Amino acid sequence: MEKNSTERMKELVELLSDASKSYYAQDKEIMSNFEYDKLYEELEKLEKETGVILANSPTVNVGYEAVDELPKERHEQPMLSLGKTKSREELQDWVQDKTALLSWKLDGLTIVLTYLDGKLERAVTRGNGEVGEVVTNNARVFKNIPLSIPYKGRLVIRGEAVITYSDFTKINGEISEEEAKYKNPRNLCSGSVRQLNSEVTAKRNVRFYAYHLVSADGVSFDNSREKQFMFLEEQGFEVVEWKRVDRENILDNISYFEKAIETYDIPSDGLVLIYDDIAYGEGLGRTAKFPRHSIAFKWADEIKETVLKEIEWSPSRTGLINPVAIFEPVELEGTTVSRASVHNISVLRGLKLGIGDRITVYKANMIIPQIAENLTQSDSLEIPDKCPVCGGNTVISQIGDAQMLYCENPQCEVKKIKSFTLLVSRDALNIDGLSEATLEKFISKGYIHEYADLFHLDRYKEEIVEMDGFGEKSYQNLADSIEKARNTTLPRLLYGLGIANIGVANAKMLARQYHYDLEQLLHADIEELSQIEGVGEVIAAAFCSYFEEKNNQIKLDHLLQELHLEEVEEEEEQTLTGKAFVVTGSLNHYVSRNELKEEIEKRGGKVTGSVTGKTECLINNDISSNSGKNKKAKELGIAILTEDEFIEKYLN
Questions:
Q1: Whole-number mean pLDDT of the chain?
Q2: What separation in angstroms does the CA of 124 have from each of 119, 136, 195, 488, 491?
Q3: Does the pLDDT value for residue 506 go beyond 90?
Q4: Which of 46, 217, 420, 510 could bond to 153 as cystine, CB 3.0-4.6 Å?
Q5: What are the strands, taking DSSP E only, across 38-125?
């Protein structure tokens, strides 16, 4: 029995460690919170029964290991996890006869901020609790962080960087590929805060909420955590909402937060309770992993039993087919739910689902419906070998740690959405009002079959005006945008066609090479195109192959009847033709990397995302940085130039 317990503990440590690494360090989710908590509790129970705690057990390790791309820094004080409970009565007993503060436990990325002389000096992630990643430049662009505060001493605070549900929904809505969408706000926030380019962070609307004052030189808080919170508010910080509680009123205040979370826009996975008496709390000491002055409360998931009625296979524009569970409706957290995403084939198989199985469902963080367990486990569900839309063959592909189901038919109707989305995008025809969701509706209703149909939506004006989200004004705005898009340029058209390997830069390069004459370009063969500096055989073959397909020729001919290709005047001498550059880090002379990229492309150059042997130079104002790109450039003997050096050498 002892041997079996030890083996199970090893298995649990590996499973939980993999899940934590994926969630915290790689920003992806391979296991639900419900499943993680269940396995964690099983491991804790086995450790208590056997008296054995294995090396690397998540019950004694904290957080994730810092990734190589960001500088690392050791914390002044170890950042510990909190002990957890799902029992309200346990919280009530924990308070004893003391006063405590009850606040949100936000679900984002923990950050430590250091201020000196009233200015933000340092921002470091939690990392593994001992060592974190330095993200100061990114913290400076958080939406609500004070860069300057009245207090001029040295201040160290902890807080949570978060992205709201509304911003998360908006950002995900702008991503076309289904598998590229972020799984939850926490993953998106983690990736946003740990960017190497603070411009990306700025666009993500990251917010910071303070929850712990580590130190403030020379300030007395009369031994009160609440007065520390008030002090932080006076400095301009947004502090987590808190309630002053005691044994008598704590249950009522828990109920307050429980009701508030139904409409709370900031991700939260529970509450935190901390003694107001600082000296008393600190005097309690700590365990190897938990401080004793505070405790976390996790919502006890409301779990309901129901019956699985069907699995809806929902295709996406990339060919990915997502399984969605449809079950008999149940009331959860005040709303009726009848469907939940099963995520992928790996999760579906792990649940051993079958139609008619009795399953339990819950809302993750009281919001997102999920399947908790399959009580029947009939494992009788058949994975479709045909796409539910086009009838084409399906294939199961291994993507990272998960198996996904895809439609293999390149002509699948749903896949048209991706091509239409690209054609109407900002860098192509730039038609406002045609989101992916709208295009999907128009295609499914038969309003659009080919590109030229975009310019004849007036045939369906009456139907469109009556659609959800539309009306006379919305329709007119769309119609005006479509008319405006009739006047475009050859590079925009080439990019919008979605030819393999023809991005914005290559489209501009090809158009420029043939003096913006489409007929000349279409008559060029692979050999001729391959001779162009920066094109090569791969791009040339992709271009010619696209127009060898008769259907593509017909689509283009029809589209050209709707468009007027404007003449483009060359403004810059093509001094950078055939040269490839990589830009990284923050810039001083340009608002963004895209602005510098446009300057390079105007002169015939190209900007790529990674350093290779063909790179002309790496542009980085931090030449001494140990970033991956700097290391690669040094290995390959590629020049690393500051922005000023690059401008002097290549643009002047």
A1: 84
A2: 15, 7, 13, 46, 43
A3: no
A4: 217
A5: 72-74, 84-85, 100-106, 109-116, 119-125
CATH 3.30.460 is right for the domain spanning 2-50: no
Q: Please check the confidence at residue 64 and state whether its pLDDT lies above 60.
A: no
Q: Is the CB of residue 118 less than 8 Å from the CB of residue 263?
A: no
| pLDDT tens digit sequence for 206-261 | 999 999 999 998 898 999 999 999 999 988 899 999 999 999 999 999 999 988 88
Report how far residue 406's alpha carbon sits from residue 177's, in angstroms, rounded to the nearest whole number: 13
Distance CA 527, CA 108 (A): 53
Mean pLDDT (whole number) for 49-61 = 69
Task: Decide if 111 contacts 206 (C-beta within 8 A).
Answer: no
| 230: Cβ contacts below 8 Å, ≥ 6 apart | none
Residue 592 Cα distances to 74, 193, 200, 226, 396, angstroms: 31, 18, 10, 42, 40
Helices (H), 55-184: 88-95, 136-139, 165-173
For the domain with range 413-485, which CATH number is right: 3.30.390.10, 3.40.50.720, 2.30.30.100, 1.10.150.20?
A: 1.10.150.20
Question: What 3-state DSSP class applies to 509?
Answer: helix
The full set of domain ranges for the chain reads 2-50, 72-297, 304-407, 413-485, 490-565, 580-651
Are 146 and 235 in contact, with CB atoms under 8 Å apart?
Answer: yes
Do 413-485 and 490-565 fold alike per CATH?
yes
Neighbours of 191 (CB within 10 A): 18
**Which run of H or E residues covers position 421?**
helix 416-423
- Compute φ and ψ for 42, nearest 5 degrees: -65, -40
Domain at 490-565, CATH class: mainly alpha
Using the 8-state DSSP alphabet, how is residue 414 labeled? G
In the block, which residue shows the tokens 């105007």? 602
Least confident of 42-46, 330-334, 524-528, 581-585: 330-334
Token output for 415:
């896949």
Given 3.30.420.40, 2.40.50.140, 3.30.230.10, 3.30.420.10, which CATH number is that of 304-407? 2.40.50.140
Return the SS3 of 384.
coil
DSSP letter assigned to residue 392 = -
In one letter, which amino acid is 430? N
CATH level 3 topology of 72-297? D-amino Acid Aminotransferase; Chain A, domain 1 (3.30.470)
The catalytic residue positions are 105
C-alpha–C-alpha distance, residues 14 and 527, integer Å: 54
Sort strands 155-162 and 109-116 into parallel, antiparallel or unpaired.
antiparallel
CA distance 297 to 555: 59
Can you tell me the distance from the alpha carbon of 3 to that of 14, in angstroms, rounded to the nearest whole number?
17
Question: Any idea which of 208-212, 260-264, 410-414, 495-499 has the lowest mean pLDDT?
Answer: 410-414
